[in-house]
Design goal:
Layout: E1 2-12, H1 13-19, H2 23-29, H3 32-39, H4 44-62, E2 75-79, E3 85-89, H5 91-100, E4 106-114, E5 117-126
Antiparallel strand pairs: 1-5, 2-3, 4-5
Helix pairs in contact: 1-4, 3-4
């Protein structure tokens, strides 16, 4: 297995809370699936904060940052039935990944939060 890139990000939960005070910001940063999941939780801000950190960490692992066609709401952070997080891509972001890699890369992700902070770690590799 070859690792293409790694990325990590930490965010202050209060910063995310301030950003999300408008519906426009919410829709620009998060997919409908993420909004549905996080809005159902008691601690929804931490859910959003972890996903925001994951999107930043993914863009760092990719080496592009959030630019050149990479969009926050097209990087979707989901959980499998056991709670393990994974990243699903769509739209222009998915097309960029398809052009960049000959075959679908493996994207691994770890999320955590503690009161005021959320952190994410992402690796992009090929098998």
């Amino acid at each position: 297995m070859n690792i293409y890139g790694i990325g990590t990000d930490i965010v202050n939960v209060d910063r995310i809370k301030k950003i999300l005070n408008t519906k426009k910001s919410l829709n620009r940063l998060f997919s409908k699936e993420e909004i549905t999941k996080c809005s159902k939780l008691i601690n929804s801000i931490n859910c959003y904060a972890k996903r925001f950190a994951a999107k930043e960490a993914f863009s760092k692992a990719l080496g592009t940052g959030i630019s050149n066609g990479i969009n926050f709401n097209e990087i979707i952070v989901m959980n499998n039935k056991n709670g393990k997080p994974f990243i699903k891509l769509k739209g222009k972001t998915m097309q960029i990944i398809k052009k960049k890699f000959k075959k679908k890369p493996k994207i691994s992700i770890s999320l955590s939060d503690e009161k005021k902070y959320a952190v994410a770690f992402v690796t992009i590799s090929n098998d």
